[in-house]
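During the reporting period the student researcher (J.K.) took over the structure-prediction task from the postdoctoral fellow and processed the backlog of single-chain submissions. One of the processed entries is reproduced below for the supervisory committee.
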Amino acid sequence: MSKIMYEYTKSILERVSFDIILFRKELNKAIRTLLPYELDLLREWLLSFISDKPELKECLLIV
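J.K. obtained the following structure tokens:
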């Protein structure tokens, strides 16, 4: 089930990436619910996902 939450979290973050406030809110939820190794995966995914979205770069500090 854990893998399902990770994939779900990624899809939510992709959908709300147009709004930095929503993105930050969903990212904080993900930090509370995902397992430590999933947070590592999420951090790697975020690095590639926000490479072309400079407005979201500050969110890396959250993770």
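The committee noted the following: The chain is about 65% helix and 0% strand.
J.K. will present the remaining backlog at the next meeting.
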